[in-house]
Amino acid sequence: MPLAPTTPASLVDQAIAGMRALLESGEWEVGTRVPPEPALAAALGVSRNTVREAVKALAHLGLLQVRRGDGTYVAATTDMQALMRKQLARVDIAHLLEVRHAIEVRAAALAAERRTAADLASMDAIMDRRRQAVLDGDGPAFIDADVDFHCAVVAAAHNPLLVELYDGLVETLRASIEHPGAADVLAAEHDAVLDAIRAGDPAVAATASADLLDHVVP
C-alpha cells in the first residue's frame, strides 16, 4: 500500500511534535529563548513557514511566548504546566497558597516513604548551596537554591502528577521568595523537613513541611 503524500498540515504537526520533544526532554527549559526560525527549520527538516505555524500553535497552547522584536521563549514545558500558568494569572492569591500547602505537605510525607539515596544526596547538595548563598549574600543563588529544595522534596515523592502540578507553581514560588540577608531565619525549618525525610518518618515530615509553610505563607 503506497504511503500518502506528506501534506502541509502534517508537516506542521511534525514540527510541533519535534518542538514538544525538546520541551518535554528538558532541553528547552522555562524562560529560555528558542532558536530562531532558520535554525529550527534546519533542525526539524521543514520550511520556515512551517516552523512559524508550529510556533503559533504552541504559543496558543501557552507553551511558547512570542515577544515581538525579541524572539520566542519557553513559557511552559507541558500542557499541564501551561494550563496552571494560565489559571494562576487570574486566581485569588489565597487559593494559590492553599494549593501550594496541600501539595508540599503531602509531598513531604510521600518523600519520607519513597526517597532514594540519590534524592537525599540532591537535597543535601541543594541545602549546601542555599547556606553558601546566604554567606555570600548572593540573592539570586539563594532564590534558585530555595526553589530547587522545594522542587526536590516534591520530586522525591516520585509521583509524576504531583511534580507536574508543582511545576506550574514554580514561577509564582520564585517571585515570592526574598533573600534573607545575613540571617536565614528559616534554615532550621528547612533542615527539619530534610531530617524527617531522611529518617523516613512521613508524619514528622508532613508536620515539618506545614510548619515551614506557616512561616512563609501568610
Structural class: mainly alpha
Please tally the β strands and state the result.
2
Oligomer: single chain
Low-pLDDT residue intervals, each spanning 5 or more residues: 1-7
The CATH class of the largest domain turns out to be Mainly Alpha
CATH topological fold name of the largest domain: Four Helix Bundle (Hemerythrin (Met), subunit A)
Elements, N to C (H/E): HHHEEHHHHHHHH
What topology, given as strand order, has the largest sheet? Answer: 1-2
Inertia-based shape: elongated
Count of domain modules: 2
Main sheet summary: 2 strands, antiparallel
Distance between the termini: 65 Å
Helix content: 55-70%
Sum up the structure in keywords.
218 residues; mainly alpha; Four Helix Bundle (Hemerythrin (Met), subunit A); 2 domains; elongated; transcription regulation
What can you see in these coordinates?
The chain folds into two domains: 69 residues, Arc Repressor Mutant, subunit A (Orthogonal Bundle), CATH 1.10.10; 136 residues, Four Helix Bundle (Hemerythrin (Met), subunit A). The chain has eleven helices and two strands; from the N terminus they run H-H-H-E-E-H-H-H-H-H-H-H-H. It is elongated, with a radius of gyration of 20 Å. Helix 5 packs across helix 7, helix 5 packs parallel to helix 10 and helix 5 packs antiparallel against helix 11. Helices cover 69% and strands 4% of the residues. It is mainly α. The protein has a two-stranded antiparallel sheet with strand order 1-2.
